[in-house]
Amino acid sequence: MKKIITLSFLVIILVSCNNRIAIKYDDKNHQLTSLEKNFEKKTSPFLNITFEDYFKSDYIKIYVDKKLVYDKKISTSDMLGVADSYELEKDFKEVIIYINNQKIILTKEKTLDYKNIYVNKLPNNKIEILISKKFHIYK
Predict the structure, then answer these.
(1) Sign of dihedral through CA atoms 37, 28, 82, 33?
(2) Average pLDDT, the chain
(3) For the whole prediction, is pTM greater than 0.85?
(4) What value, to the nearest 5°, has the Cα angle with vertex 73 and ends 82 and 134?
(5) What is the pLDDT of residues 2-53, one digit of tens each?
(6) How confident is the model at residue 92 (pLDDT cuts 50, 70, 90)?
(7) How far, in Å, CA of 35 to CA of 68, rounded?
(8) What percent of the chain clears pLDDT 90, i.e. is strictly above it?
(9) How far is CA 84 from the centre of its chain?
(10) pLDDT at 43
(11) Which sign, positive or negative, has the C-alpha torsion 86, 56, 127, 62?
(12) Is the sign of the CA dihedral 57, 92, 95, 52 positive or negative?
């Protein structure tokens, strides 16, 4: 009986941990507006990672192919609605983003047709990732 309770507890923990990060993809066939086309020309060989809402003194680390390229404590600006961003060349195999102790793994294959990764931390500490061709415009 004790083993069943322990096993049930572990399953609940694992399930709740896996539900902390949601990854969504925008339509990769999205037709860019003229403004978006101008942004795309300027950022062509790059993938933009933008940290948007609800970050408050959160520790962020980004590893590109196991090399640490970003290590900061960030907070979302109330005026802009964005905390920070990082631009990386698209010749990577794997990107790992740590938000505090939550780990997000993105591969080149999953991001190849996109330009932007928007990372949002919700008030309940859940993380939402939007992988998109669209550019977000800030205040």
Answers:
(1) positive
(2) 81
(3) no
(4) 30
(5) 555 444 444 444 444 556 889 898 876 767 777 666 666 565 678 899 999 9
(6) very high
(7) 33
(8) 43
(9) 12
(10) 59
(11) positive
(12) positive
The residue assigned the tokens 């640490």 is 68
94 confidence band (pLDDT: 50, 70, 90): very high
Q: Which residue has the tokens 């990372």?
A: 119
Structure tokens given for 31? 């037709």
102: nearest Cα among 23, 13, 20, 11: 20
Q: Do 135 and 116 form a contact (C-beta atoms < 8 A)?
A: yes
For residue 62 the two structure tokens come to 């980004």
- Residue 100 CB neighbour total at 10 angstroms: 13
Q: What is the 3-state secondary structure (H, E, C) of the chain?
A: CHHHHHHHHHHHHHHHHHCCEEEEECCCCCCCCHHHHHHHHHCCCEEEEEECCCCCCEEEEEEECCEEEEEEEECCCCCCCCCEEEEEECCCCEEEEEECCEEEEEEHHHHCCCCEEEEEECCCCCEEEEEECCCCCCC
| Count of residues making up the chain | 139
